[in-house]
Amino acid sequence: MGFCRCLLKFVMVAFDVPDMTRLRLALVTVLLASSAATVGGAALGVSPASAKTTPPPAYQPQPDRRSITIGLQNRQLRDTEVSTIATNYSVVVFTKFHANWDATLVQADTRRLKALNPNLKVYGYISTKFWFDANNWGLTINPAWFLTDQTGALIPKVDDGTGRTDARYIDVSNPDYRTWILNVATTWMGAAPFDGIRFDAADPIADYGQHDIATWNSLLTPDKITAYNNGITDLLTRANSLLPSVLYNGISPSDIRGPGRDLFQLDFTDGAMNEHFCINGDGSRADLLADVTIMQQYPTKSLQERAGVDPTVIGLPSTNLLARMCLGVFLMGWQPGSTHFNFGAGYDNLQLTQQPAEVNLTLGNPISAMVQSGAMLDRRFEHGTAVVNTGTVDATVTMPTSSVEFRDGVRKSVWRRGSQYTVHPGDAVFFLDASYIGAG
Prior knowledge:
Layout lengths: L1 H14 L3 H21 L1 H4 L22 E4 L8 H10 L2 E4 L3 H4 L1 H14 L4 E7 L2 E3 L23 E4 L2 E8 L5 H17 L4 E5 L9 H10 L2 H21 L3 E4 L21 E4 L13 H10 L4 E7 L2 H4 L3 H16 L5 E6 L26 E3 L2 E5 L3 E6 L5 E4 L4 E5 L2 E6 L4 E4 L3 E6 L8
């Protein structure tokens, strides 16, 4: 503008311009200066009010909210599977039977995963209470460490009411066994870049569940039961002081865990597995609000929330509906960096593709706590909103802002502020904010 004034003054003086003409020149100069400011706004420090930023893609990997428990019975991970896991997950927990139960092959897969993603957290597997003959660890357990009943007979692992001949209880009350298994765990830490160990079957015995209590009271004395449970606590506590991280299984709702769901073990571990998050294996619902409350109460604990459902039992498309609902419930309590979700029908590689599409929806981090209104749950995120209907009838929500619905990986309708949206029972819906209305 200063340059324009100087130019105007030079023209008027040099050419003796009349007053009226001077006024016209002044108006032209102001208009030119205004146009220059608009065109070169960025250089002049002026930001046009209509400037818009392009939102991130609606779908992209969201590893911060995902974990996987993986076990391929007869082989190691393929290169494509290693790449998929390293890109899409934050936490990997191996099962006991991965790669033919071979500890050295699990270690090899761990090195491959960490080579692609050093920030990925990988956990090895140890059963707290059971020894399996298939364990291929390159060592032999002392048979004196197996648990025996009051008659001296070995106590087998029982599956579906039948005692197994290839798996039996370990006497966790034996301090020599606890020292030995902790040495095994620390050896594994040195052999591969594990981030910790998941101790499976860590629930105490004979404390809850009438059948479980009666069974153990017929097998062991009260003093032995107390010593056994104390041994579990000592093992987890010492492991947590020796190893980088310790997870235990678990906190799934069940009779043998009682109303407290063994949450007390979080006091001396880093986190826990919930293998029946949101739904039971037959597709029936778990206590949805209880699972959300646990995530809220333990925001710094590593909680692996796995909705373990068998689609051959419940059938399709119910799986898609349940997957959406469980993801929505998870998001109600999600603590970024601590809690992680997986929808798993078994532990094989099908998990890598059979997930609710919106697990990768770019919602961003939560910006509010869950809000409950009757059976309806909702939560706001940086880029959108998730809503869950936990009830048994349709419910409507009033859109607080203009948003775009995304469902099963597809962009759906635009919903304007104030419009009514119907959420079906047992379903979840996911919206991205107004910045996505004209995007994509």
